[in-house]
Amino acid sequence: MRVGGRTLLDRVSWHVGPGDRIGVIGVNGSGKTHLLRLLAQEINPTSGAVRVGKTVHAAHLSQEAGELPDELRVLEAVSEVRPVAELGGVELSAGQLAERFGFGTDRQWTPVVDLSGGERRRLQLLRLLLSQPNVLLLDEPTNDLDTDTLAALEDLLDGWAGTLVVVSHDRYLLERVCDTTVALLGDGSLAALPGGVEEYLARRATAAASVADERRERRGDTRAARKELTRLERRVQTLQKRETALHAELAGHATDYAKVADLDAELRAVVAEREAAEEAWLTIAEELG
Predict the structure, then answer these.
(1) Residue range 14-70, pLDDT digits in tens
(2) Can you say whether residue 220 is alpha, beta or left, with left for phi > 0 and alpha for psi between -120 and 50 degrees?
(3) Where are the beta strands (DSSP E) in 126-263?
């Protein structure tokens, strides 16, 4: 699979089976979105083939919300797909479904064009689920969602009975709703990661350190950069410990919704800071060359 002169996938064989729950990770530009579009048959591979089973009904949640009917109101946009549906064993009307996804009675009559980014994302997901797919292809599903909607989405995906393929930078989401993890490493390969996100980060750190070592031999090093690398390493370790503690606290306060909301907000902030520190570490390690 080549895009813009770059090879994103090279001689990759990958089987996605019924009930698989797969998280897809990789650096920006590695081809995660194109991989989902291949699975959704929205694009064709440069060579080779994508074979889809006859009973597969896939639904693709893209990062864009351009497919929403801006000329309709929220309730009309829901009813357009399915006026009545079953959710969790209960039959719900379009209005009840919209309310489940955070659209109160008044908000249901808001024109789709006037919705905020987070509301458009919620409506996009609701319409997707109403199409009753057995395969969900989700590209950064947590983008623009508030804490309450994030929690509802995680609960929904946690109980999803079909096949799930999720591209996300949200480590907590991937570890909660996915059973296996694969990574696009930027070299055309698709690697299975038995160790999940942790293994991916370790691989990236090892690769970056190796590149840094090679370049350092040729061009030397700077004292300030070495100090910053050490500081970032310590900061990442501290944040990882806090993440672990927050997960334990979340489990211990599962019935205290106010506490869970506070802990969840802190967890997402910690995760974002850790990821930023890891990216900074990798950038400095490469620049040391």
Answers:
(1) 999 999 999 999 887 788 888 999 999 988 888 888 899 999 999 998 887 667 898
(2) left
(3) 135-139, 163-167, 180-184, 190-192
Whole-number pLDDT of residue 223 = 73
Question: Under DSSP, is residue 146 helix (H, G, I), strand (E, B) or coil?
Answer: coil
Q: Would you say 267 and 246 are in contact if contact means Cβ atoms under 8 Å apart?
A: yes
Quickly tell me which residue has 């211990």 as its tokens: 252
Would you report the helix, strand and coil content of the chain in percent, each value rounded to 5? Answer: 50, 15, 35
| Cβ proximity of 150 and 162 under 8 Å | no
Phi, psi of 29 (to 5 degrees): 90, 0
- What's the whole-model pTM score? 0.68
Digit-coded pLDDT (tens) for 107-136: 999 999 998 888 888 898 888 888 888 999
Spatial contact of 128 and 22, defined as CB atoms under 8 Å apart = no
- Tokens 């060579």 belong to 47
65 touches 124 (CB < 8 A): yes
Answer whether 9's CB lies under 8 Å from 191's CB. no
Length of the chain: 289
- Cα(26)–Cα(3) distance, rounded to whole angstroms? 16
The position carrying tokens 């509301």 is 119
Question: DSSP readout, 21-88?
Answer: EEEEEE-TTSSHHHHHHHHTTSS--SSS-----TT--EEEE-S--TTS-TTSBHHHHHHHH-SEEEET
Which residues, other chains included, contact 282 with Cβ-Cβ below 8 Å and sequence gap of 6+? Answer: 204, 205, 208
Report how far residue 135's alpha carbon sits from residue 148's, in angstroms, rounded to the nearest whole number: 25
Rounded distance between C-alpha atoms, residue 213 and residue 222, angstroms: 13
Residue 85 β-bridge partners: 92
